[in-house]
Amino acid sequence: MNYTIDASVFVSAIRALEAQHLTSLDFLDQVQVQGATIICPTLVLPECAAAIIRPTGDVVLAERVIRLIESFPSLNLISLTSPLATGQPKLLSPNNSVAPMPFIWLWPKGMRRCS
To answer: Which of 5, 20, 46, 84 registers the highest number of CB atoms within 10 A of its CB?
Structure first.
Protein backbone atom coordinates (compact mmCIF):
# COMPACT_ATOMS: atom_id res chain seq x y z
CA MET A 1 0.00 0.00 0.00
CA ASN A 2 1.20 3.52 -0.81
CA TYR A 3 0.28 6.55 1.29
CA THR A 4 0.66 10.29 1.08
CA ILE A 5 0.84 11.72 4.60
CA ASP A 6 -0.03 15.30 5.45
CA ALA A 7 2.56 17.41 7.28
CA SER A 8 0.19 17.67 10.24
CA VAL A 9 0.59 13.94 10.93
CA PHE A 10 4.39 14.22 11.10
CA VAL A 11 4.16 17.35 13.27
CA SER A 12 1.63 15.75 15.62
CA ALA A 13 3.87 12.71 16.00
CA ILE A 14 6.84 14.92 16.90
CA ARG A 15 5.14 17.40 19.25
CA ALA A 16 3.80 15.77 22.42
CA LEU A 17 1.52 18.77 23.03
CA GLU A 18 -0.48 18.12 19.86
CA ALA A 19 -3.99 16.71 20.35
CA GLN A 20 -3.32 13.81 17.96
CA HIS A 21 0.22 13.06 19.15
CA LEU A 22 -0.39 9.44 20.21
CA THR A 23 -2.66 8.70 17.25
CA SER A 24 -0.03 10.03 14.86
CA LEU A 25 2.75 8.03 16.52
CA ASP A 26 0.64 4.87 16.37
CA PHE A 27 -0.21 5.44 12.73
CA LEU A 28 3.41 6.06 11.70
CA ASP A 29 4.45 2.92 13.62
CA GLN A 30 1.78 0.90 11.76
CA VAL A 31 2.98 2.26 8.42
CA GLN A 32 6.51 1.09 9.22
CA VAL A 33 5.34 -2.35 10.36
CA GLN A 34 3.26 -2.74 7.16
CA GLY A 35 6.27 -1.78 5.07
CA ALA A 36 4.07 0.73 3.26
CA THR A 37 5.58 3.24 0.87
CA ILE A 38 5.14 6.89 1.76
CA ILE A 39 5.10 9.34 -1.14
CA CYS A 40 5.00 13.03 -0.25
CA PRO A 41 5.67 16.22 -2.17
CA THR A 42 8.81 18.05 -1.06
CA LEU A 43 6.51 20.73 0.31
CA VAL A 44 5.98 18.52 3.38
CA LEU A 45 9.43 19.56 4.65
CA PRO A 46 8.95 23.35 4.82
CA GLU A 47 5.38 22.83 6.05
CA CYS A 48 6.68 20.78 8.98
CA ALA A 49 9.50 23.23 9.65
CA ALA A 50 7.06 26.15 9.73
CA ALA A 51 4.71 24.25 12.04
CA ILE A 52 7.60 23.75 14.48
CA ILE A 53 9.09 27.25 14.19
CA ARG A 54 5.78 29.15 14.61
CA PRO A 55 5.01 28.01 18.16
CA THR A 56 8.59 27.44 19.36
CA GLY A 57 10.78 29.91 17.47
CA ASP A 58 13.37 27.12 17.44
CA VAL A 59 15.05 26.93 14.02
CA VAL A 60 17.51 24.25 15.18
CA LEU A 61 14.63 22.02 16.28
CA ALA A 62 12.92 22.56 12.93
CA GLU A 63 16.11 21.50 11.11
CA ARG A 64 16.31 18.35 13.27
CA VAL A 65 12.66 17.59 12.50
CA ILE A 66 13.31 17.89 8.76
CA ARG A 67 16.25 15.48 9.01
CA LEU A 68 14.09 13.08 11.00
CA ILE A 69 11.30 13.18 8.42
CA GLU A 70 13.77 12.76 5.54
CA SER A 71 15.07 9.61 7.22
CA PHE A 72 11.60 8.10 7.75
CA PRO A 73 11.70 4.54 6.34
CA SER A 74 10.09 4.15 2.92
CA LEU A 75 9.60 7.90 2.44
CA ASN A 76 9.87 9.04 -1.15
CA LEU A 77 9.89 12.80 -1.68
CA ILE A 78 8.74 14.01 -5.08
CA SER A 79 9.04 17.45 -6.61
CA LEU A 80 5.98 19.61 -6.31
CA THR A 81 4.93 19.98 -9.92
CA SER A 82 2.18 22.23 -11.21
CA PRO A 83 -0.35 19.37 -11.66
CA LEU A 84 0.40 18.14 -8.14
CA ALA A 85 0.16 21.66 -6.68
CA THR A 86 -3.18 22.30 -8.38
CA GLY A 87 -4.81 19.25 -6.86
CA GLN A 88 -4.43 16.52 -9.46
CA PRO A 89 -5.61 13.46 -7.50
CA LYS A 90 -2.73 11.23 -8.57
CA LEU A 91 0.90 11.06 -7.55
CA LEU A 92 3.91 9.43 -9.10
CA SER A 93 4.41 5.97 -7.66
CA PRO A 94 7.88 4.55 -6.94
CA ASN A 95 7.88 2.54 -10.20
CA ASN A 96 7.17 5.76 -12.17
CA SER A 97 3.62 4.84 -13.07
CA VAL A 98 0.73 7.10 -12.19
CA ALA A 99 -1.47 5.60 -9.52
CA PRO A 100 -4.03 6.94 -7.05
CA MET A 101 -3.22 6.48 -3.37
CA PRO A 102 -4.77 7.27 -0.01
CA PHE A 103 -4.07 10.64 1.55
CA ILE A 104 -3.84 10.54 5.35
CA TRP A 105 -4.65 13.31 7.77
CA LEU A 106 -5.97 13.40 11.32
CA TRP A 107 -9.17 14.84 12.74
CA PRO A 108 -10.02 15.18 16.43
CA LYS A 109 -11.83 11.84 16.48
CA GLY A 110 -8.82 9.98 15.10
CA MET A 111 -7.43 8.91 11.80
CA ARG A 112 -9.42 9.30 8.61
CA ARG A 113 -8.63 8.21 5.08
CA CYS A 114 -9.72 9.78 1.85
CA SER A 115 -8.71 8.17 -1.43
So the answer is: 5
The pTM of the full predicted model, rounded to 2 decimals, is 0.73
10's CB contacts (< 8 A; 6+ apart) are 24, 28, 44, 48, 65, 69, 72
Question: What pairs with residue 4 in β-bridges?
Answer: 103
Q: Each residue of 49-78: pLDDT tens digit?
A: 999 999 999 999 999 999 999 999 889 998
* Residue 112 to residue 106: CA distance in whole angstroms: 6
Give the list of residues 6+ apart from residue 13 with CB closer than 8 angstroms, or none. 21, 24, 25, 27, 28
